[in-house]
Automatic annotation (TrEMBL):
It is an enzyme of class 3 (hydrolase). The chain crosses the membrane at residues 12-30, 80-99, 120-139, 201-223, 264-284, 290-306. Belongs to the FIT family. Fungal FIT2B/SCS3 subfamily. Its EC number is 3.6.1.-. The keyword Lipid biosynthesis applies. The lineage of its organism: Eukaryota, Fungi, Dikarya, Ascomycota, Pezizomycotina. The gene is SCS3. This is Acyl-coenzyme A diphosphatase SCS3. GO terms for biological process: lipid droplet formation; phospholipid biosynthetic process.
Length: 322
């Protein structure tokens, strides 16, 4: 297996996520603005109590724009966040020299490109599968919805309207209503009472971490430093990717594609981090945010950190840029 142009990023960079959640949670606890936005009748809620997100989105005029669930960034970025993640990842796969094919490549170099591309797609597929099972579908309702119900959560308004055991509802229909947050909210119900793992935290951490590791990996390959305005190191003619670097350097259009693909990726990562910070301030309890973080970082560890230590797993999923 080829060696990356420089070592892959340290797992220490993942500490930015717990630091972001901690900063946002502390801000929500001590800021008068945040506290007034989350205020509601009755005794103050414990930070480990059921989520206040339902109360927040019911407020007609939140103090902060980002406390509104209908803010433009939530509607057109976070709600379709995995689509943005997919587009950004696809731009890396299509534009970066680590994956592209050139006529001057030898058969062995072409095989290396194929292996890199397949492993990159496998890493994306694994992350997408975890995202889908957690937030969309897991042999019925998603894992987040199932865990909410298992910890005592209910669709309160639906229960009031139908009763605990409505004769007009079959058991599968009742389960569909009770186990799906989307169905509950669409029917005018309120999703309350259980441990609501933060899907926003989970998705934003997983997506931005995945794109960061992928971008740093392919950026380190060949001339990623030049894209950032630095001097690129000279590659020896014996380097298996020497011809590819030379072709890219002579092709202005390809160089432009490389630059813009990285800009897209870092744009998605930057906005994703900002929305993670906003989520940390305005939505969910501490425990719900940290449980979403734990699931996301566990996935990132399995896909990007564990292969560095486990050779058999590295041979399957690879390392970005290697």
């Amino acid at each position: 297996m080829a060696t990356p142009a420089r070592p892959p990023p340290s797992a220490i960079i993942l500490l930015v996520y717990p630091a972001t959640l901690l900063l946002g949670s502390l801000f929500s606890a001590i800021s008068p603005t945040a506290r007034s936005s989350t205020s509601h009748p009755g005794p103050p809620a414990s930070p480990l109590a059921p989520s206040l997100a339902a109360d927040l989105h019911m407020s007609e005029s939140p103090v902060n724009y980002f406390a509104r669930k209908n803010n433009i960034f939530n509607l057109y970025f976070v709600k379709i966040g995995w689509l943005w993640t997919t587009v950004a990842f696809a731009s890396l796969l299509l534009a970066q020299p680590a994956y592209r094919f050139y006529s001057s490549l030898s058969p062995s170099q072409q095989q290396t490109r194929i292996r890199r591309s397949l492993q990159a797609f496998l890493r994306y597929a694994l992350a997408t599968t975890v995202w889908y099972l957690m937030t969309q579908w897991f042999f019925g309702p998603a894992v987040i919805d199932r865990s909410f119900v298992m910890t005592g959560g209910k669709c309160q308004e639906i229960l009031r309207q139908t009763g605990k055991a409505s004769p007009h509802m079959s058991t599968p229909d009742q389960l569909a209503v009770l186990l799906s947050a989307t169905t509950c909210k669409a029917a005018g119900g309120t999703w309350r009472g259980g441990h609501d793992i933060s899907g926003h935290v989970f998705m934003l951490v997983l997506a931005t971490a995945m794109l960061t590791f992928e971008a740093i990996g392919v950026g380190a390959f060949s001339f990623g430093s030049r894209v950032e305005g630095d001097c690129v190191r000279e590659r020896k003619a014996s380097d298996p990717d020497h011809d590819a670097v030379r072709n890219i350097e002579q092709d202005g259009d390809s160089g432009l594609a490389v630059t813009w693909s990285l800009r897209l990726v870092w744009g998605v990562v930057g906005l994703g981090w900002w929305m993670l910070f906003m989520t940390a301030i305005w939505f969910h309890t501490w425990l719900e945010k940290w449980s979403g973080l734990f699931v996301a970082l566990s996935t990132v560890y399995a896909i990007y950190i564990l292969p560095r230590k486990l050779t058999t797993w590295r041979d399957i999923v690879g390392i970005p840029g290697a």
